Amino acid sequence: MNLGRDGGDSMDINKLQEQIIFIRSGNSGKARCEEGWNWNPPPLHDYDLWYALSGRGEMRIQGQSYPIRKGSCFLVRPGDSPQATQLSEDRLQVIFIHFQYAPPLEEDASRAYIPERHTVITETYAFETMLNRIMELEERKFVWKELEFDLIMKQLWFQLLRSQANVPETRLREDKHGQLLSRVVALIKDVPGYRISHQELADQVSMSPEYLNKLFKRNMGMSLKHYMTEARLERALHLLQETSMNVSQVAEALGYGNIYLFSRQFKEQYGRPPSDFKFKGVASRPHGRKEQGDS
């Protein structure tokens, strides 16, 4: 199986998995960025896997600017001098992991098997679960700790490669409607608690609601209504796991007038009631004054 971005076979993926070891090399953590935060470190000496759990902002790496929103993942490389800012009205919460891998890859393999600097993760639940597991490792004394770090990092690494190899993870077709549907998806995910109507979404892409729903279902494999429900429930899961909000508060924040409907839909989606998803991970810490090079 080849997961390189170019689809080539310059290195067998099984050999890559066996030979490469991911090693923690610096500070890692989860942080709620403080008001006035910006990130402008000197050139990094290691890799930094930097992921936005929530909020909005902008990242600039090697002269290229990228928007930051939930699901934005950046692989900042040694020698990069990243610059990041956030919107004051929608502050960022991020996870960052500093690491190295050994032994170094040959140049051809490096181009094929090192993910690009920016990836948008659309299926965020599994990805964030792995990131949070690494955060838990930071707080534990465990004889297999370094091995588990290596294995989880490999899963995250392959997830980035799969996303960038255009495996149909987003279910969006590469056709003339792709950009319009991507815009609809972004609108839904940006405001999951706002009951945006099909008409409002259709107006944004100059379509009729009927045609938009037909196009959406053909490309995404589900109806617009179903996708909007999934987006709200994904946000609900995040709020339950990452904040002190209770089930009633989450349901109200996401526009549910009936907590029983919310609980039923949530259990259908995740197999367990929302009350089971209490925050058990590592709490966010202030993210303002950092040591040199930290995210």
Query: What is the structural class?
Result: alpha+beta
Gross morphology is: globular
Secondary structure: number of strands: 10
Strand/helix succession = HEEEEEEEEHEHHHHHHHHE
Mean pLDDT: 81
Structure overview:
By secondary structure, the chain is an alpha+beta fold. The longest helix is centred in the middle third of the chain and has 20 residues, at 145-164. The protein has 2 domains: 13-169, Regulatory protein AraC (Jelly Rolls, Sandwich), CATH 2.60.120; 180-275, Homeodomain-like (Arc Repressor Mutant, subunit A). It has helices at 13-19, 107-113, 124-138, 145-164, 178-190, 198-204, 209-220, 224-242, 247-253, 259-270, and strands at 21-33, 38-39, 47-54, 57-61, 64-68, 72-76, 83-86, 93-102, 118-120, 285-287. Helix 8 (224-242) crosses helix 10. The chain is globular and about 55 Å long. A 6-stranded mixed β-sheet has the order 9-6-3-8-1-10. A 4-stranded antiparallel β-sheet has the order 2-7-4-5, with no helix packed on it.
